[in-house]
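hiii, so i know i said id send this last week but things got crazy w the move. better late than never?? heres the sequnce for the chain we talked about at the cafe, plus the structure i predicted for it. fair warning i was half asleep when i ran it
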Amino acid sequence: MPDNSEKLSILGDKEILFSMFTEITTNARYSVDKIWENTKFFMALSSALLTTTIALFGVFTKLSNVNIFGLDITLVLTLIPLSIILVSMIGMFNLKREYRTHLERIVIMGKLQEMLGLHEEVESSNYLNDKYLLPSRFIEDKFSSSEEFIELGIKRKGSLYSYFKALHWIYIMLSLIIIAAIVAVSFQ
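okay and structure toks below
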């Protein structure tokens, strides 16, 4: 059985902490880039499918008895917006997972900042009302747990996550409107 009195702790070594802080900061920047890239992918795919649907819908209104690969055009036109809804749902799930990972990195960065002494009060002649090296909001916001911070970050209005989620919902709503239009035209 190991002797607990000789535990090695890296938490007291400032060089190791700074190295960890540098790595997690780099990973946090990477996670924001990854969120942007994934969102661009899902939005481009949804836009292409939406454009295809609208173009085919224009043809459909002129040629209602057309078959594509043996399938009625109404069915084909309905399947494309349904695939947009599916793509948007997958995009939202992926976005939430990526954003949650990003927030987890922010939690780790905050803890490392405190351990490195970046939360200590400093005097500055440039910013007389600032009492910390970092902006006050990063230090004065207190949470009971990292999970509370992450959940509030996911729910917060005006975040990157909320804007991108809204875009996915717009594609879903447009798809539902197109499906309703297809159904309405096909039963005329």
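btw The mean pLDDT is 82. thought thatd interest u
miss u guys!!
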